[in-house]
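Let us practice reading a record.
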Amino acid sequence: MDYPLTKALAVATLGYSAWVVSSADTLREQLDDPREWELPASRLAFTYAGRDVPISTLALLGGAQGARTAALLRIAGDVTDALTLGSTASSAASRKKAAAVAAGYGVLNALALVLDERRRRA
């Protein structure tokens, strides 16, 4: 199988998207945002799912080139998430947490892509 680590992260992303969308308050709670942020956090969860589900589907069904493209899109999304959430969450602690999680997931996706590329060339 081409890009197994990238595809494993795509499956994890699909699962996370389904979990966050199925519970309106999940993302708000994860960001430690106050109750009045419930509606914006819910909209954000659906926005992320609208981006992450197609990207993950591309990784899983798009062959080797689709997986590579999806990984690059995922990393770009993680960078923008880190920048956006790191500057807009409700408190300094929430901003740090959100930026760290998004950046960490971006690093994880980048590592998976690098390892998958090396394995593919070997």
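A brief commentary: The mean pLDDT is 92.
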